[in-house]
Specification:
With 179 residues, the protein is α+β, with helices and mostly antiparallel strands. The chain folds into 2 domains: 83 residues; 82 residues, Threonyl-tRNA Synthetase, Chain A, domain 2 (2-Layer Sandwich), CATH 3.30.980.50. Helices cover 61% and strands 24% of the residues. Strands 1-2-4-3 form a 4-stranded antiparallel beta sheet, covered by helices on one side. Strand 3 and strand 4 form a beta hairpin. The longest helix is centred in the N-terminal third of the chain and has 86 residues. The protein is rod-shaped. It starts with 8 loop residues before the first helix and ends with a strand.
Length: 179
């Protein structure tokens, strides 16, 4: 026997299509929300990873800044130490210079004719005060001083006659320019 369906067939197809569309839309929304959740988790993990990296870099920067500060302190200490060593070296080189000058000065003084009372050195100038028998001895002493290795020029500041124990002597003051 032949069966005839008198119900319109498109209504059952419509109901099935509607059901299928609802399932597809619900599945699409579910997949979309899952994708959004995974994307949010990925971004959150990336942000926390970058924040940790920034924190580590800032810690490293603080450490390196401290090291740079220490290096600067060491550099200033080094320059100060070098200055001190150069000063010590200069002092060591010039340590014997006054002794040599005095030794040479004593060899230039005519014995028994001239007596030195005072001498002072200020920078590149030497002031010599003393007493001599006469002006000739003073002149000879000045020539001897000009021949010295340490003195460039000699000038007579004062020369006056004094009397000591009944003997007439010449008191003098000389100014010498040093090398």
């Amino acid at each position: 026997m032949i069966r005839i369906n008198l119900l319109p067939y498109w209504e059952s197809d419509k109901k099935e299509n509607l059901k299928r569309q609802i399932i597809i839309i619900a599945g699409s929304f579910t997949i979309f929300f899952l994708i959004l959740i995974f994307f949010q988790l990925y971004i959150s993990m990336s942000i926390s990873k970058l924040e940790n990296e920034v924190k580590n870099k800032e810690d490293r920067l603080a450490l390196l800044t401290k090291v740079i500060g220490d290096i600067e302190v060491f550099k200033t200490d080094k320059t100060n130490l070098e200055k001190k060593l150069n000063l010590i070296k200069t002092l060591e080189e010039n340590r014997l210079a006054p002794v040599r000058k005095l030794d040479e000065l004593t060899t230039l003084v005519p014995s028994k004719d001239l007596w030195l009372e005072k001498f002072s050195e200020k920078g590149k100038e030497l002031i010599i005060e003393g007493v001599a028998r006469d002006n000739i001895v003073i002149a000879r002493f000045m020539k001897n001083l000009e021949l010295s290795n340490y003195i460039t020029s000699v000038g007579l500041i004062t020369s006056k006659q004094i009397e000591m124990s009944g003997i007439k002597l010449q008191q003098f003051t000389l100014r010498c320019a040093l090398l």
